UniProtKB/TrEMBL annotation:
<keyword id="KW-0805">Transcription regulation</keyword>
<dbReference type="GO" id="GO:0003677">
    <property type="term" value="F:DNA binding"/>
</dbReference>
<dbReference type="InterPro" id="IPR050707">
    <property type="entry name" value="HTH_MetabolicPath_Reg"/>
</dbReference>
<dbReference type="InterPro" id="IPR036388">
    <property type="entry name" value="WH-like_DNA-bd_sf"/>
</dbReference>
<feature type="domain" description="HTH iclR-type">
    <location>
        <begin position="7"/>
        <end position="66"/>
    </location>
</feature>
<dbReference type="GO" id="GO:0045892">
    <property type="term" value="P:negative regulation of DNA-templated transcription"/>
</dbReference>
<keyword id="KW-0804">Transcription</keyword>
<dbReference type="InterPro" id="IPR005471">
    <property type="entry name" value="Tscrpt_reg_IclR_N"/>
</dbReference>
<dbReference type="Pfam" id="PF09339">
    <property type="entry name" value="HTH_IclR"/>
</dbReference>
<keyword id="KW-0238">DNA-binding</keyword>
<dbReference type="GO" id="GO:0003700">
    <property type="term" value="F:DNA-binding transcription factor activity"/>
</dbReference>
<feature type="domain" description="IclR-ED">
    <location>
        <begin position="67"/>
        <end position="236"/>
    </location>
</feature>
<dbReference type="InterPro" id="IPR036390">
    <property type="entry name" value="WH_DNA-bd_sf"/>
</dbReference>
<dbReference type="InterPro" id="IPR029016">
    <property type="entry name" value="GAF-like_dom_sf"/>
</dbReference>
<dbReference type="Pfam" id="PF01614">
    <property type="entry name" value="IclR_C"/>
</dbReference>
<protein>
    <submittedName>
        <fullName>IclR family transcriptional regulator</fullName>
    </submittedName>
</protein>
<dbReference type="InterPro" id="IPR014757">
    <property type="entry name" value="Tscrpt_reg_IclR_C"/>
</dbReference>
């Protein structure tokens, strides 16, 4: 079968990525595996590294980069959303509060699914809402397990600290009280994809009057259980 798409540079980049599928490669190894000229192989590998599709291991060899995992996780979003409805509804019923699912997109987070409280005072976050990554328990979750460089950048101007995120990683959940919006508290936990990478945050939110100033004491276990169910659903559908 002819693997040529007619777009030469893309075909060559695909050759480089395919060559790295079997493991780390030196530049000489890439040249041997792809049949590309040495300067071409080097130029493409470095360009792909710029876009995080290629990275280097501790010995300086080329390896597949983190961006590929992020794209694969995004491709799994429909599976995540298919599982989210029943899990969020159960979480809302157990806690009595609105439940949301957030994914990171650049410097923002997006509510991709929600189950609203049926009556009384609500903290409504409509599906499709875009919120900052600088405040709130879901932002803490989506930031806490980031690569060190992105973590350092993300903490600039944030309402939470590196020490707080260290606590989040240790506990496995996050809480916020009036951090994103006055009078609102929330608790969140990480949803992990098959590679154990954090791909989303599941949350409950509501008025401080109901959730108190220590919302994790009330709802952390329910949140962690919901996150575990969503993580298991992703493992099941991709296995």
């Amino acid at each position: 079968m002819d693997n040529s798409s007619g777009v030469g540079v893309l075909d060559k980049a695909a050759l480089v990525l395919s060559a790295l599928e079997s493991g780390p490669a030196t530049l000489a190894g890439l040249v041997g595996a792809t049949g590309l000229a040495r300067p071409t192989a080097h130029r493409l590998a470095v360009a792909l590294e710029h876009h995080r599709m290629v990275a280097r291991d501790i010995q300086g060899r080329f390896i597949l980069g983190p961006r590929l995992g992020e794209l694969a996780a995004a491709a799994g979003e429909d599976r995540l959303l298919a599982s989210a409805g029943p899990v969020l509804t159960h979480l809302r019923d157990v806690t009595g509060e609105s439940a949301q699912l957030y994914r990171r997109q650049g410097d923002m987070r997006i509510c991709v699914a929600a189950a609203e409280r049926l009556s009384g005072l609500r903290d409504t976050v409509p599906v499709g809402s875009t919120l900052p990554m600088k405040a709130g328990s879901a932002a803490q979750i989506l930031m806490a397990w980031e690569e060190p460089e992105r973590l350092h950048r993300g903490l600039q101007g944030a309402r939470f600290t590196a020490t707080a995120l260290s606590g989040v990683r240790r506990r496995g959940w996050a809480q916020s009280v009036g951090e994103r919006e006055p009078g609102v508290a929330s608790v969140s936990a990480p949803v992990r994809g098959p590679s154990n990478r954090v791909v989303a945050a599941v949350s409950v939110s509501g008025p401080i009057e109901r959730l108190t100033r220590h919302p994790g004491r009330m709802h952390a276990q329910a949140i962690v259980d919901a996150a575990a169910r969503l993580s298991e659903a992703l493992r099941r559908t991709t296995g």
